[in-house]
Design brief:
Helices cover 66% and strands 10% of the residues. It is of the alpha+beta class. This is GGDEF domain-containing protein.
Length: 300
């Protein structure tokens, strides 16, 4: 026959059952029935609290598990994000490097193009200068530096066309060095060339900016006086004659004179216009040289 449990032993077993979570044994021991009502109420409260705690603990464990899963997911997401950030940084760095290389290439190419352009501009400038030199040479008399025969005749054609178009006066002068053959005979052709150059320079320096002068041939010079009547041309020609007569050329101080024949354009042909000036030059020579003749011998 089993001995009766003491109420205290029964109480201890009930607490141990609660602590162990064995709720089906709680309140079923017969010794409990003999315990005061307050103890039974206390056990019921204790059981409910234990169940709630256990439920809460279970929820916490479940949430902890979920949190662990979430933490893993977050770690994986962070790892993926870190990887993507690293890849983007690498891509950005590669892009920056590519841009830097591209900028270097652009700068290099720009520099090369600038150098090529500068070289082309230099070549164009040199070609233009060469072309200008060739053009000047093509219209310049090699000995005197004046306009050559071809250019002065073309200039006269243009001057006649302008005079016809605008009905403006136009005069010309044919000039010739007096006794130039004696200069060559007495001083030699080198000094003769010097005389031609110095006389040409004197004429060029003393004409107006609107006048055009050229070497017609040999020791003859042709001057075009645009917008100038015969009286004005005569005054200009006289000044030129005086300036030439004042020259002392070379170390031997050679003195020379010039004669000139003038003509004013009156609508005739270029040939007749030139013939009139040439005839007046002839009259100047025949009348004693070192003088200017206009239109006819009576004006000498």
């Amino acid at each position: 026959m089993k001995p009766h449990k003491r109420p205290i032993d029964c109480l201890v077993e009930q607490f141990q059952a609660v602590g162990a979570g064995i709720y089906d044994k709680i309140g079923k021991d017969k010794c409990i029935e003999n315990m005061p009502y307050e103890f039974n109420q206390l056990f019921e409260i204790l059981v409910r609290m234990s169940q709630e705690i256990e439920t809460t603990v279970a929820l916490l464990k479940e949430n902890e598990a979920k949190l662990s899963v979430k933490a893993i997911e977050i770690q994986e997401f962070n790892a993926q994000l870190t990887k993507e950030i690293a890849e983007r940084k690498a891509a950005q760095k590669a892009l920056e490097q590519l841009n830097a290389e591209l900028e270097d290439k652009v700068l290099l190419r720009t520099s090369q193009l600038q150098a090529i352009n500068a070289a082309l501009q230099k070549e164009i400038t040199e070609r233009k200068e060469t072309q200008e030199i060739l053009e000047r040479l093509s219209i310049t008399d090699a000995l005197t530096g004046l306009n050559n025969h071809g250019y002065i005749m073309s200039a006269l054609e243009r001057a006649i066309a302008e005079a016809n178009r605008y009905n403006t006066p136009l005069s010309i002068g044919m000039f010739d060095l007096d006794k130039f053959k004696k200069v060559n005979d007495n001083y030699g052709h080198v000094e003769g060339d010097r005389v031609l150059r110095d006389v040409a320079g004197c004429l060029q320096e003393n004409i107006r900016s609107t006048d055009i002068i050229g070497r017609y041939g040999g020791e003859e010079f042709l001057l075009i006086f645009s917008h100038t009547n015969i009286e004005q041309a005569y005054d200009l020609a006289e000044r030129l004659r005086i300036r030439v007569s004042e020259l002392l050329i070379g170390n031997r101080e050679i003195k020379v004179t010039i004669s000139g024949g003038l003509a004013e354009y009156k609508g005739e042909s270029l040939t007749d216009f030139m013939r009139q000036a040439d005839q007046n030059l002839y009259f100047a020579k025949e009348s004693g040289r070192d003088r200017i003749v206009i239109d006819r011998p009576s004006n000498v």
